[in-house]
């Protein structure tokens, strides 16, 4: 079954760090541009970082300098290292894979990150 599964969400104190993992199954991972999104209740899902198959990266301004997106193509895995977390980073974090050329995106079901003292 083609799928993406996020893991690593947790409760962390402000200023703390956390690393999220997105693990793929049954896709040629290197053929996908990968994304991290996040969403809080009542809001639209927001793209926060992306990484191409050759590891070119982009970040949304609010996470630039604090979050690092990376990928391991042979392992079919993507990561989001989150540093200096703020309470407003609290959200459900999702990974998305977009195939090169044509095709539909693949979404994971998300992992919850809560930043609170």
Question: Can you tell me about this structure?
Answer:
With 117 residues, the chain is an all-beta fold. Helices cover 0% and strands 51% of the residues. The chain has no helices and eleven strands. The strands form two sheets. Strands 2, 4, 5, 6, 9, 10 and 11 form a seven-stranded mixed beta sheet that branches. The mean pLDDT is 97.
In short:
With 117 residues, this protein is an all-beta fold.
Shape: globular
Mean pLDDT over the residues: 97
Alpha-beta classification: mainly beta
Seen as an oligomer or otherwise, the chain set is single chain
Q: Tell me the helix content.
A: under 10%
Number of DSSP strand runs:
11
User: What sequence of helices (H) and strands (E) makes up the elements?
Assistant: EEEEEEEEEEE
- Rounded to the nearest angstrom, the radius of gyration is 14 Å
Span from first to last CA? 39 Å
Tell me the major beta sheet.
Answer: 7 strands, mixed
Parts with pLDDT < 50 across at least 5 consecutive residues: none
Q: Beta-strand percentage?
A: over 45%
Q: So how many helices? A: 0
Notable characteristics:
117 residues, mainly beta, seven-stranded mixed beta sheet, four-stranded antiparallel beta sheet, 0% helix
């Amino acid at each position: 079954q083609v799928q993406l599964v996020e893991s690593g969400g947790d409760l962390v104190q402000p200023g703390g760090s956390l690393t999220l993992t997105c693990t793929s199954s049954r896709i040629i991972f290197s053929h996908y541009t990968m994304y991290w999104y996040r969403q809080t209740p009542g809001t639209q899902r927001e793209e926060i970082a992306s990484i191409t198959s050759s590891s070119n990266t982009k970040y949304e301004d609010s996470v630039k300098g604090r979050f690092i997106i990376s990928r391991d193509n042979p392992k079919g895995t993507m990561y989001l290292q989150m540093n200096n977390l703020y309470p407003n980073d609290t959200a459900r974090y999702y990974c998305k894979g977009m195939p090169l050329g044509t095709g539909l995106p693949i979404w994971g079901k998300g992992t919850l990150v809560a930043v609170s003292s």
